[in-house]
Design goal:
The protein is mostly helical. The chain has helices spanning 3-22, 26-47, 57-63, 68-74, 78-87, 89-98, 110-113, 118-133, 139-144.
């Protein structure tokens, strides 16, 4: 995997998330929207890796994480995010929504979480996808500036 692969995967996973949301399949939509952000952050980490340098073992091991906050730090974007959310309330709200995503969401059945109400899962999936791609905040839009 290289930086370009992660960039392409980020875009593809968001496209798949939109398609699943349109088909009212929120479980996969939610998971893939968060995974798009994970791939985008990994593209930023890959950008920081110098060609022909022997990689730092801790960085390599830590990069194999699904924790978006940890990946944000490894990508060197934490301070930039702190600065940008200070002047962009939409980005702040979008990051607050996205940072709670976990790869464990792939095991959730949203109708179970909402007492059989499938619209609860649709709401959460739509909220996450909006936070990932909104024009005024948009976590993926923001990450693209650094990848």
């Amino acid at each position: 995997m290289n930086r370009t692969d992660f960039q392409r995967l980020a875009e593809l996973r968001l496209q798949e998330a939109r398609a699943l949301l349109a088909a009212e399949l929120p479980d996969g939509a939610y998971y893939l929207a968060g995974y798009a952000v994970e791939c985008a952050l990994k593209a930023c980490i890959a950008k920081r890796t110098q060609q022909y340098d022997f990689p730092d073992k801790k960085l390599v091991n830590d990069s194999h994480s699904h924790d978006l906050g940890k990946l944000l730090d490894l990508a060197g974007l934490s301070d930039l995010l702190k600065n940008d959310v200070a002047s962009n309330v939409e980005l702040k709200l979008d990051w607050e929504t996205v940072r709670d995503w976990s790869e464990q969401s792939r095991y959730r059945l949203y109708e179970q979480l909402y007492d059989g109400n499938p619209f609860g899962g649709l709401y959460d999936a739509r909220l996450l996808i909006d936070a990932v791609e909104s024009e005024k905040g948009g976590v993926l839009r923001w990450i693209r500036q650094s990848w």
